[in-house]
Write the structure tokens for this entry.
Amino acid sequence: MSAPSSSAVSAAGHDTHGHDESKFQIYVQIAMLLAVITGVEIVTVYLPFAKALLVTVLVVLSTVKFMFVIFYFMHLRWDKPFCTILFFIGLVLAGGTMWALLSLFGAEASLPLPT
Amino acid sequence: MSSHAATATIDHHHDPTTATGIPNKKLLMWAFLASDCMFFGTLISTHLIYRLHPPAGGLDPKVIFSPELTSFSTFILLMSSLMMALAVTAIQKGNVKSCRWSLLTTIFFGLIFLGCQVYEFNHFVHEKHMTISNSLLGTTFYTLTGTHGCHVAIGVLWLTLMYVRSFKPAAGSTQRTWFSHQLLHAVALLGGLLLVLKVTLGLVHALQIEPAFGAALGHFLKAEFLALAGVLVALGACVWFSRPRGPVDFNVTHAIDVESMGLYWHFVDIVWIVIFTVVYLLEYL
Amino acid sequence: MDASAKTAYLTKEELAPAKPKLLSHPSAKTGLMGWLTTVDHKKIGFLYGFFALIFFLVGGFEALLIRTQLMVPNNDVLTAQQYNTLFTMHGTTMIFLAVMPLSSAFFNFIMPLQIGARDVAFPRLNAFSLWTFVAGAIILNIGWFLPTATHGAPDGGWFGYAPLTSKQFIPKHSIDYWVMGIQLLGVASIAASLNFIVTIINLRAPGMTMMRLPVFVWMTLITSFLIILSFPAITIALVELMMDRNFQTSFFEVSGGGMPILWQHLFWVFGHPEVYILILPAMGIISEILPTFARKPLFGYPIVVFSGACIGFLGFAVWSHHMFTTGLGTVATAAFSLATMAIAVPTGVKIFNWIGTLWGGHIVMRTPMLFALGFVWMFMMGGMSGIMHAAAPADSQQQDSYFVIAHFHYVLIGGSIFALLAGLHYWFPLMFGRKVSEFWGKLSFWVIFVGFNVTFFPMHFLGLNGMPRRTFTYDPNLGWNTANFIATMGSYVLGVGMFIYFAVLTYTFFKGERVKKDYWDGRTLEWSIDNPPPEYNFRVIPTVHARDGWWYEKHHRAEIEKEKSAHAQAEEEHGGIHMPFGSIWPFVTSVGLLVGAVGITYFDSDWSPGIHAKLGVSLVGGGIMFIGIYFWSLEGNEGYHLHLDQDGRPIADEPHAKH
């Protein structure tokens, strides 16, 4: 095994080593956080507030969960930014399409005729 | 990783280091997940569009859904994601044993999730009388959550095969039967898992139809005797196949394979996060 | 243990444990097994092209039948049912089985050569894409050979609008073939595109930065993104349709509360990006050909690239312009109208860039250049009628008329097909080391050009005079007789032109004059290798110093020679050129998909007695597919090494399995 690659290996190994100590802790903490947020979401549903507020809260909480999973569990945080860009191209287009479809079908022109 | 750029000119060690430094498999997986976003986006849209103007006299999801069960399976799936992340960390450090245990736990959690879904579907069809063809809610709900369930099932299959793969003997081994062992191990593990699923559902079923615990147990043992025996045989076989037999061809160099699988598994998890909110929780507002 | 040293290839010199016979690597390079197990991107590209051209001729034949039926009023060459089948299959075949795979053939063959790679990132996945495409093509066309009463070829239109496709209106299996066929083609396209994306991002030669990529590679990348992001929508739509037909759900069934309009939305969420999937590769080809024959670099390279990306992105925001007449509401109509008009801007920018490339160049009029210039003109005319559809009020007059037919044939034949035909002529010397006769090439161009315009230009008038599309005959007193007759005559001329084109191509393939490398004096890296390209592509992975990499090499010979010999030596020290082993498992996986999909098409909603056999077929297919994937992963991505002599011929393969 030649010198350049073994140095590359040790560099890469060193690179990840710094995270290793704390990664286990981070993962467990995030899992707990996700569980707590899920609990909060379930409680939120039954709270007597305005519907719009509750929907906002739920969407924000789910987004937080979503982001924690993709940036930590799926380690986008430690990866090259291009992975994030790649995934967000799909995510943004899918989100945009969903939004457009729901707006189209929610519009007055799409209301079912009274029967 | 900057050293990769410098060595990119020529492939050292058959490692045609990539132009960006991102491993090919990881890039493939992220591109696939971007595509899958659109896949589930369309499916969830369909469900939501039909929930925008629910037909008069249609089924009421508040009556049908059971928040307790769904919350439980959501929690289970989150925990399976944690175990998956730990499995990736373990193999990146070359800790094969820890990786195997994390994989097994992930499989186990994934299976519980699938069991919950089978139970849920069964319950909805037989108790709540919502079938895939008798209502629009049933049509979109079963298709959406069923497709997600298929993704989980594929994930479990993948995890199982990766777990079995971790027993492939290393270079220099004299073991000539490893290939048939791999196949039998995979069959035993998959068969065992399916039987465990069946047995557990059988137990739940028995507990529901028999009020007394003893009677339920008796009923369960009678109904599931063969399956229980099968579970024992399969698990015994798995233990036998997984006995230590020298160095294995599964180490840090395979971290990328486990990691790609992990990305898929976490993605299935985040899809469920979205489904949990927009399909289940929003109905209760 | 060397940790991250391995990523893509694991070549185990010390390979033990003993490999079971089942997993031994196929070594055939020729013959049937050679083709079935190939992972060489050039062979796969060739096969894509081969199948695509066959289906192109089939689709063309269908078109001629349609035109024959419409030649005179009240014609009875075809029955209404046959006419339905023919226009459905003509559209589906041309889009999914001719233009897309032909583009894919160029992606496969040319793209890795242009970025200086030895293969795509996942060679076996590439083979899987090819065979799955073939499987999809088989299912789409299987109905031709089965009884028309219960099976028959698909006959619901290429966009299969609900509720026409429901069991109630088409109870026979024709639609099921359409559903599963397109489903498999989607799998194939997505797998191939993922592969191309990774290849372009990761396998670029040193120095080949993103802004040095040839425009064709850029368009491949953007097209691949469009495919992976738009096909999931049709996949879901088809799943829902399949559920409706086979499992009695009510996604699009009005009686169960479903909305047929949802199908239109989901279809066009896919369908509009699909339009750009068909045209962007063509734009890439043109952007390669024009600079080569104008003898100057592409004018405004970054702008061409960015306008391509812009078209791709905007392509996702305009789908509802196919549905203006369905009543979307004023806001949505205005928004989609605006977005559609906006898309004309980057397209127009490209046209100006091409004209700018020609401006002041030393234009060499060879056959590929003729087709390319034909493209620019005809595509522009298609764009002119396209922009008319963007205005919703005008579109409501043109919707479903022959005006629309004229428009999209101008952009698909005058656009995509002209560019693909140009590309075939352009890269033929590279692919096969032979050149097409200039006289016959130019003759075929002029016949095709005249035939095409005579066929489709009158359709503008037919459309404006109110002739609706998809009518199998018409009354003599509607004023459509002359134009229809002219169009049919034109289509025969077009057919003759295509015959000349392909006859000449076939002749050249076997008997054409042999040419040396770099026949056109090209600019991009694919011309730096011998023709036909050796299996290892590049003797030495090139280092790119400029946007037109090969042009730079040709003008800095001494510097490049020194660099290359240094690299060649370094590579030889590291074991030689790495080549992937062939594999049969991608083919097995595709066969499994084919069998499984055939099983699914036969499901009936009423769980009739034969259901077990049908379920069995699906399960057997699934099993074969699973075995294919499992063995595919078990056999590992190993390879062997090539060592070359002075003339670039392999000295000896060095197999690794030493048992």
Remarks:
- Chain C touches chain B through 70 residues (CB under 8 Å).
- The CA atoms of residues 540 and 617 of chain C lie 49 Å apart.
